[in-house]
Design brief:
This protein has helices spanning 5-12, 16-24, 31-44, 50-57, 73-88, 102-114, 130-137, 161-174, 191-205, 222-233, 249-262, 296-312, 331-334; strands at residues 62-67, 92-97, 120-122, 142-145, 155-159, 179-183, 211-215, 243-246, 272-277, 290-293, 320-323, 326-328. By secondary structure, the protein is α/β, with parallel strands linked by helices. The protein has a six-stranded parallel sheet, sandwiched between helices. The chain has a six-stranded mixed sheet with strand order 7-6-8-9-10-12, sandwiched between helices. The protein starts with a helix and ends with a helix.
Length: 335
């Protein structure tokens, strides 16, 4: 059974108010009394209920963060950036993984609302933002992460993914590639994936004789990339692409594994390969991976800062911060 603050007061021989002051304003209590109360706390094993205290005060010190895939190092870096910024504002971050499933995303939004968090950082898994709007209607600010929402009044912090896709395909085309396969995502994919494909398609449309196809995957994981790579490698030579643009680095790593395991295709001589995100592992793959870099930590930091501003001033005008992607060239495209 949990020890109450009243029991601490009895053992310490002080009032409940004095125990509360020791917990919350120790400088307002005589040092010898503080020591007596703390001895009682240690003796009884009392643990303060911060959640209850915050509810009584009407103010929480936590914010929620919902990411699309907690196993993706990109989102781990986003979370780290948000956590570092949160500590500067006296906040803590609770993270949930939607696994790209709207139902799980909504469940986390419901949970965060029940916990009365101060605000939410959300990397949405669908185009609809009804659940996020409900939180805002109830006084909980929401900032979108890794995706913008044109036409809405949500603040957002992201990278220009259409530009990133254009840069990726342009790099392949400049290196003489003409048959590009974009690997990853469904036909109707996450907005980020759709934008990357759209940017790549725009670059291809500007080069005579160049083509692009979309090889879909159920997930954006290493295993999904490996399956797609095996399918591509099994094609007749004349039907294979001479370049692959993977929707993210995890998919690219899986594609690379498939091509290397088969052993008949060389990277980049037979098939050039580029990923997206530039996770730390990209430079350590069997063939160092060319990638489009996103400033993941900075995205998390700036998103938390925008959220903190909305917490302080709920009437603050929405803003969109969009970073420029950066091409990082390695051996997988220019070896």
């Amino acid at each position: 059974m949990a020890v109450s603050i009243r029991e601490v007061a009895v053992v310490a021989g002080v009032s409940v108010g004095t125990v509360s002051n020791v917990l919350n304003r120790p400088t307002a209590v005589a040092p010898h009394t503080v020591q007596r109360v703390r001895r009682a706390i240690d003796q009884l094993g009392y643990v303060r209920n911060d959640a209850a205290r915050q509810l009584r005060a009407g103010q929480s010190t936590t914010v929620g963060l919902i990411v699309l895939d907690a196993q993706n190092p990109f989102f781990a870096d986003v979370a780290r950036g948000a956590e570092d910024a949160a500590s500067e504002h006296g906040l803590a971050v609770l993270t949930g993984n939607s696994d790209e499933q709207p139902s799980r995303e909504n469940a986390y939004l419901d949970l965060f609302e029940e916990q009365r968090v101060r605000g939410v950082l959300l990397s949405p898994s669908s185009e609809t933002l009804e659940a996020a709007q409900r939180l805002r209607d109830h006084g909980i600010p929401v900032v979108l992460v890794d995706r913008t929402a044109p036409g809405s009044d949500f603040s957002a912090v992201a990278v220009d993914d259409e530009r990133g896709g254009f840069i990726a395909a342009s790099h392949l085309l400049e290196n003489g590639r003409r048959r590009i396969a974009f690997v990853g995502g469904q036909r109707v994919a996450l907005r980020q994936v759709e934008d990357r494909f759209a940017g790549a398609a725009r670059a291809v449309s500007e080069v005579a004789g160049a083509t692009i196809e979309h090889v879909t995957t159920d997930q954006l994981t290493v295993l999904a990339g490996r399956d797609a790579g095996s399918v591509i490698a099994a094609r007749a030579p004349e039907d294979r692409p001479d370049a692959i643009f993977a929707a993210n680095d995890l998919v690219a790593v899986g594609v690379m594994q498939a091509l290397v395991m088969i052993g008949e295709l060389r990277i980049p001589e037979d098939i050039a390969l580029i990923g997206y995100d530039d996770i730390a592992f990209a430079q350590s793959t069997v063939v160092p991976l060319t990638s489009i870099r996103q400033p993941a930590g900075l995205i998390g930091t700036r998103a938390l800062e925008v959220l903190a501003q909305l917490i302080e001033d709920p009437r603050r005008a929405p803003e969109t911060i969009e970073f420029e992607p950066e091409l990082v060239v390695r051996a997988s495209t220019t070896g």
